[in-house]
Amino acid sequence: MYFIYRKYGNTIEITEIEKEPPQGRVFAPRKRRDVFEARRPDNTRRTKKLCMWRVSSALEEYGCPLLVTLTFNGDASDAFYASDSLRNFQVRLRDKYPQAQSIFIPELSPRGRIHFHGLLFNVPLSLGDTREGERLISHGDERKTRILAKLWGEGFVDAVKTDGSPKLAHYISKYITKGADHVIFNGMRRLMRISHGFPQQIEIKGEFAEYLAHRYANKKPIKEWEGDNIFLGKVIRKTYLQKEP
pTM of the full predicted structure? Predict the structure, then answer.
């Protein structure tokens, strides 16, 4: 059996595989994908998982982020332009707040306009509004100073304080699935744009992962999945929540 130990946030995921995966991969020349072709479902699922892992890790490391939405004033139907605008915003954000980290996912409005949903870490939470459900409790400094809107430079920025809940990882990753259905986003190389240095999940494979798996053998998982893979054989994945110290 082969083991993979993965930790993101306060979640521990242990995967047990019947056959050890091959250590090397042979890459064949890739056929250029038609811009009108839909994204592969397996790639979408992988991106969504990666989004959850990395956001969970960032929440554990940095704490509460701002939940922001970036919208365009003018034409918002050009994915190439939208992607470049977002990249420029992330560069300006890092210039303003050197420790800032960010993650953004695009969404298409019913009117066909592109906008971005994202999380900003290591920026002043005072910029964001305070909300309780749909009810606005107090306005944030962004409404007066427009600091983020000036850095964005393309339109309006809505910023809301968060409590750092793990649910944010699920909330932001759902836009991955929604975005994969729109071929307009094929103009973007990735549906998920993460700033340089954004925290990653801890991943351990092999013998040490097996040792760690045995430490959880007597604990009850919060989730368990079992399936078969034509290349790897039987696959068992168990998920645990790490207790707070």
Answer: 0.87
